[in-house]
Amino acid sequence: MKRRTFIPLSIAAVAGCRRSASITDWHPAMNYEALAKAGDAVEITWHCLGRIDTMDRVGLGIRAVIEVNPDAERIAAECVAKGAAGPLQGLPILVKDNMDTADAMLTTAGSLALVGSKPTRDAFVVKRIREAGMVLLGKTNLSEWANIRSPKSTSGWSARGGLTRNPVRLTHSASGSSSGSAAAVAAGYVPGALGTETNGSIVSPASACGIVGLKPTVGLVSRTGIVPITHWQDTAGPMTRTVRDAALLLNVIAGMDAEDAQTREADERRAADYTAMLNEDGLKGRRLGVVRDLAGSDAGVWAVFEKALEALRDAGAEVVDTVELPHQNDLGRLSMVAMLSELRGDLNAYLSARGGSIVSLADVIAFNEEHRDEEMPWFGQEFFMFAESLNTPEAIDNGGRARAEALRLAGAEGIDFALARHRLDALICPTNDPTGPIDLESGDGRIRVASTPAAVAGYPHLTVPMGQVEGLPVGLSFIGAAWSEAALLAMGYAFEVVSHG
């Protein structure tokens, strides 16, 4: 059967849930809703692959997808033969190319250094999406090594995948490091994708591309089989068109993994169903604290944010203005000291377990030097080299002290303190300033993103589309205490209803 042009959909609509705006807002000439209800996974897969064919490498040249799964159509056919076994059975999904897959695809973190080896088993989250009957359509491009190679990097660029562009405005950054996952969802390749975040790498590209992104509590979702930066902050999370879709994906990937010690509480802390609390009254009686210190100074963002505050009040929320998060000036410095001291050990452990010729950070550095023209045409590997130099007892002890202090200042004396002091259900602020033009020569500009407090504390952070500033998307952040994903999703859903209809 000939592939057809794909139109965007939402997981929720295909799964029979109530909200279907992401279907009907796009191509009205095609009755995709009827197709979705028919549950034909092969037909859905053909549509998705067709849209990638026409928009990614050619056409608009978004370059969100680093590799398509050659087995996608076979997997879809098997889903049809099995019949519906769950709400996500037969639905397509893309995952970031730092998540191991034991199949025909590579897992490279965007680096040519890892092209010569392949994982022998799926990452835990990949295993979960396969068990849910989803069709793994392919891998998304990313900022190489999840943006930890150099302070001068360009978000969305990798040596293997090239440059991912923002579908909203192709001259502008898709942000990073989960740039491909965000761009793929925004461009309508798939209803949802998985990204990863260490500090801002889910919420920033989601906000910049105008979609929903959820960074879960560190420990709710396993990191086994994901190329690491630091186990203290790394997490995978859903990137989708709607809040309900994010909740559906979180249902699949959340849970304890015996190989990831930080997930030991996941099964008892997770919600039985993250969609259960989603309704139009999700903001009624909620107390939301505005953290203006995280909101920047962009006048256009402030104007959109003030309208969002009105919508929150109209939906029944009590807005507490202004809430301060103490110690913010120290968090970035402390977390970077800790992160760079942790990077070498965590990455070495992953690489040595994976096997192949590249088994350490030192091997990666040497490979990059040997292949400088392909790997470093735009920026170097200063962070990698500095992290490799931190292999002394003194440096490791210093990193440990920095991590302990950062956790305390971000968590107990930061987010937890503010929530308790003002009796709040969540903190809110604009997620980001409008993304800037792509500049490979100079690297990323200094675009404000309100990610550090939740990232360093390991607490959940949900971003929901808030509006546009001069045609570029900006998001609204809901930040909560550890394990508060269900409440944040409920509030984000209610905001989505009242602000977008």
Descriptive account of the structure:
The protein has helices spanning 11-14, 21-24, 32-38, 41-55, 72-82, 124-131, 179-186, 203-209, 243-253, 266-269, 299-314, 328-354, 361-370, 372-375, 382-389, 393-421, 452-457, 485-500; strands at 65-68, 92-96, 135-140, 157-158, 162-163, 165-166, 169-173, 192-197, 212-215, 235-240, 287-290, 318-321, 426-430, 461-469, 472-479. With 501 residues, it is an alpha/beta fold. The protein has a single domain (11-500), classed as Amidase signature (AS) domain (Amidase signature (AS) enzymes, Alpha-Beta Complex), CATH 3.90.1300. The protein has an 11-stranded mixed β-sheet with strand order 1-3-2-8-10-9-14-15-13-11-12, with helices on both faces. Helix 4 runs antiparallel to helix 5 (72-82) and helix 9 runs antiparallel to helix 18. The protein is globular.
- Cα-to-Cα separation, first versus last residue: 37 Å
Proportion of residues in β-strands:
5-15%
Low-confidence spans: pLDDT under 50, at least 5 residues? 1-7, 16-38
- CATH top level label: Alpha Beta
Write a brief structural summary.
Helix content is 39%, strand content 14%. The protein has 501 residues and is an alpha/beta fold.
Q: What labels describe this entry?
A:
39% helix, 18 helices, Amidase signature (AS) enzymes, two-stranded antiparallel sheet, 11-stranded mixed sheet, alpha/beta, 501 residues
Topology:
Layout: H1 11-14, H2 21-24, H3 32-38, H4 41-55, E1 65-68, H5 72-82, E2 92-96, H6 124-131, E3 135-140, E4 157-158, E5 162-163, E6 165-166, E7 169-173, H7 179-186, E8 192-197, H8 203-209, E9 212-215, E10 235-240, H9 243-253, H10 266-269, E11 287-290, H11 299-314, E12 318-321, H12 328-354, H13 361-370, H14 372-375, H15 382-389, H16 393-421, E13 426-430, H17 452-457, E14 461-469, E15 472-479, H18 485-500
Parallel strand pairs: 2-3, 2-8, 11-12, 11-13
Antiparallel strand pairs: 1-3, 4-5, 6-7, 8-10, 9-10, 9-14, 13-15, 14-15
Helix pairs in contact: 4-5, 7-8, 9-18, 12-15, 12-16
